[in-house]
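A.,

Following up on our hallway conversation. C-alpha cells first:
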C-alpha cells in the first residue's frame, strides 16, 4: 500500500506543479499590449478551466465524468 501512496504523491506533485505553471502562463495572456481578446474569449477560457476542475474533483468522489476533448476559442 505504501508503494501506491508514494506513486500518488510523486505524480500529484508533478502534475499540480505543471498545472500551476500553465495557469500562470494563461494569466500572461492578459497583456493587452501583446494580445487582442474580448470578454467572450475570457469567459470561454475560464468556463472551460472551471468545468475541467469540477470534473476532476468529482472523480475523487466516485462520479463518472464526460470529458470534452481539447479546447478551442473559435
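Then the amino acids I'd put at each of the 74 positions:
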Amino acid at each position: 500500500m505504501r508503494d501506491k501512496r508514494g506513486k500518488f504523491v510523486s505524480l500529484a506533485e508533478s502534475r499540480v506543479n505543471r498545472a500551476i505553471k500553465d495557469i500562470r502562463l494563461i494569466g500572461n495572456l492578459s497583456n493587452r499590449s501583446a494580445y487582442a481578446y474580448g470578454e467572450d474569449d475570457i469567459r470561454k477560457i475560464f468556463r472551460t478551466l472551471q468545468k475541467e476542475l469540477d470534473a476532476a474533483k468529482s472523480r475523487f468522489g466516485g462520479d463518472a465524468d464526460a470529458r470534452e476533448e481539447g479546447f478551442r476559442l473559435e
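The mean pLDDT is 90. Curious whether your intuition agrees with the design.

B.
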